Amino acid sequence: MPDTPPVRPTAPAQPEPGVGTPLSGIDILAFVCELFAFASLAIWGFLYWAFPWNIVFGIGAPVVAILIWALFVSPRAVFAVHPFIRGLVELLVYASATMAWWSLGQPWIGLVFGVVAVTIGVLAGRRRFA
């Protein structure tokens, strides 16, 4: 055996309680995409439907999307699901916001948002697996 000193592996340093990992630009962009998706669903609900239903869908659509996001996708999600399911739910929320813009007659806003949201989602998802 060569003359090497014995080395013991050490556990990685744990952050102090209450201190999380620092935010990156991708995290901030992902948060902006989430907010835009929720706002898009609210705009769709208020503008697409007639009077009594615009209140219901204008408030209900983003509330349902936020609830689904909080249950499955958020960093402190209620249910710990497989990353594939998490990505699928995230894609569902982004696709619904994209379709909302299309139904309002603004396909370019929907298309640009869809491309940006999916790109940011893929980049953020790759960081989670790294």
Tell me about this structure.
The chain is 69% helix and 0% strand. Helix 1 runs antiparallel to helix 2. It is elongated and about 80 Å long. The protein is mostly helical and 130 residues long. It is built from 4 helices and no strands.
Task: Lay out the secondary structure.
Layout: H1 25-48, H2 51-72, H3 83-103, H4 107-129
Helix pairs in contact: 1-2, 1-3, 1-4, 2-3, 3-4
Main beta sheet strand tally, sense and closure? none
Residue share in β-strands: under 5%
Specify the oligomeric state.
single chain
Q: How many helix segments?
A: 4
Order of helices and strands: HHHH
| Shape designation | elongated
Evaluate the radius of gyration: 20 Å
Q: How confident is the prediction overall: mean pLDDT?
A: 89
Helix percentage: 55-70%
Question: Low-confidence parts, pLDDT < 50 over ≥5 residues?
Answer: none
Find the count of extended strands (DSSP E, 2+ residues): 0
Distance between the termini: 35 Å
What is the structural class? mainly alpha
Task: Using brief descriptors, characterize the structure shown.
69% helix; 4 helices; 130 residues; 0% strand; mainly alpha; elongated
Briefly characterize the structure.
The chain is mainly alpha-helical and 130 residues long. The protein is built from 4 helices and no strands.
